[in-house]
C-alpha cells in the first residue's frame, strides 16, 4: 500500500532519484498523466534527470510497466512536465500540477506486418491498441498500457487526490491540445477519474442508439465483422474509446458486450420513448478498463 510522507512516496516498488530539473515551491491543484514515448522506465528516468542544452524536462513520478515507481522530485516542488499549457483559465500548468510519466512508447506506425515506435522498436499485437485519438486523426496503433500499470496509476491518483485535495486529473492532451496526444486512447482516463473522485455518475460517458438498428462491429470499419445482433433504437452505450468516426463501446446494463459503432447514429440523450439502463458504478468502469488492457487488442482491417 502506498503512502506519502514529507511529500515523498512510500511503499513497495518505490524509489527516489533526484532530478536537477526543478523549479520553485508547488501547491498542486491538478494531476497530469503522460506517456514517456520512451524505450523503458530506466531510459526515461535517465532522460528526465539530465540537463540538456536543448531544453530540460522532468516529472514527479515515472511509472513502469511492471508497477515500479521512481520519484524524481517531492510533490511540493515544481517539475517541468507540462510545457506550454492551459486549463480552466490558468496557463503554465507546471506551476499548478503534479506530473506522472508512464513508461509507454505512445503512437505506433504500421510497417508491413509490425507496429513500430518512433525509435524503431517493434511491438507484438498483444501490446497494441488500435484506435483514433479522441481529438481526431486516423485510426492507428498505440502502445497498450499493462494491467498492473493501470492499477498502479489508479492507486496513485486516488492517493494524490485525497492527500493534496486535487481538483481534477488531466491528460497532457487536455492541457496542450493539438500539441500533445498523451496519455492517448489506450489509457482509460475516464475510469481513472471516476475511481479517483468516486464519481458514480460519470464512470464512463454515455450515448444512445438513434437508428432503428445499429451494427456493433469487431473493428472501426464498416466492413468489419459484427459481434452480436444489431442494437435496437434506444440502446444505451458506455464509451470506452472515442474516435472521430467510430467509438468502442460497451452495452449498458447486465452485459459485457463490447464492440465498435459508427458515431453518426449516436445521440447524447435517450430517444423519446426509451429508458436508460441501470447505471454501472465506477468500479465497473475500472474493471472494464482492466479487461481491455489485459486482452489482445483486435486489429482494424
UniProtKB/TrEMBL annotation:
Top-level taxon of origin: Bacteria
Source organism of this protein record: Sphaerotilus mobilis
N-acetylmuramoyl-L-alanine amidase domain residues: 19-184
Organism ancestry: Bacteria, Pseudomonadati, Pseudomonadota, Betaproteobacteria, Burkholderiales
Catalytic activities: Hydrolyzes the link between N-acetylmuramoyl residues and L-amino acid residues in certain cell-wall glycopeptides
Keyword Cell wall biogenesis/degradation listed: yes
Enzyme Commission number: 3.5.1.28
GO molecular function, one term: N-acetylmuramoyl-L-alanine amidase activity
UniProt protein name: N-acetylmuramoyl-L-alanine amidase
Amino acid at each position: 500500500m502506498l503512502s506519502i510522507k514529507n511529500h515523498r512516496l512510500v511503499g513497495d516498488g518505490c524509489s527516489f532519484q533526484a532530478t536537477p530539473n526543478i523549479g520553485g515551491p508547488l501547491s498542486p491543484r491538478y494531476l497530469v498523466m503522460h506517456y514517456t514515448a520512451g524505450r523503458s522506465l530506466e531510459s526515461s528516468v535517465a532522460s528526465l534527470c539530465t540537463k540538456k542544452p536543448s531544453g530540460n524536462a522532468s516529472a514527479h513520478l515515472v511509472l513502469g510497466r511492471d508497477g515500479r515507481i521512481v520519484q524524481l522530485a517531492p510533490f511540493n516542488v515544481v517539475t517541468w512536465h507540462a510545457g506550454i499549457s492551459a486549463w480552466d483559465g490558468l496557463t503554465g500548468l507546471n506551476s499548478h500540477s503534479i506530473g506522472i510519466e508512464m513508461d509507454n512508447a505512445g503512437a505506433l506506425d504500421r510497417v508491413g506486418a509490425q507496429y513500430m515506435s518512433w525509435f524503431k522498436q517493434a511491438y507484438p499485437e498483444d501490446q497494441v491498441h488500435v484506435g483514433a485519438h479522441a481529438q481526431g486523426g486516423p485510426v492507428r496503433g498505440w502502445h497498450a498500457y499493462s494491467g498492473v500499470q493501470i492499477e498502479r496509476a489508479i492507486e496513485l491518483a486516488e492517493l494524490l487526490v485525497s492527500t493534496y485535495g486535487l481538483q481534477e486529473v488531466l491528460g497532457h492532451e487536455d492541457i496542450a491540445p493539438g500539441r500533445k496526444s498523451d496519455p492517448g486512447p489506450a489509457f482509460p482516463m475516464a475510469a481513472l477519474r471516476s475511481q479517483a473522485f468516486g464519481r458514480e455518475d460519470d464512470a464512463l460517458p454515455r450515448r444512445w442508439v438513434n437508428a432503428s438498428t445499429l451494427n456493433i462491429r469487431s473493428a472501426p470499419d464498416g466492413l468489419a465483422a459484427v459481434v452480436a445482433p444489431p442494437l435496437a433504437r434506444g440502446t444505451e452505450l458506455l464509451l470506452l474509446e472515442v474516435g472521430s468516426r467510430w467509438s468502442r463501446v460497451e452495452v449498458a446494463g447486465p452485459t459485457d458486450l463490447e464492440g465498435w459503432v459508427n458515431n453518426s447514429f449516436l445521440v447524447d440523450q435517450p430517444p423519446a420513448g426509451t429508458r436508460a439502463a441501470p447505471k454501472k458504478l465506477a468500479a465497473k468502469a475500472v474493471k472494464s478498463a482492466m479487461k481491455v488492457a489485459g486482452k489482445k487488442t483486435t486489429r482494424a482491417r
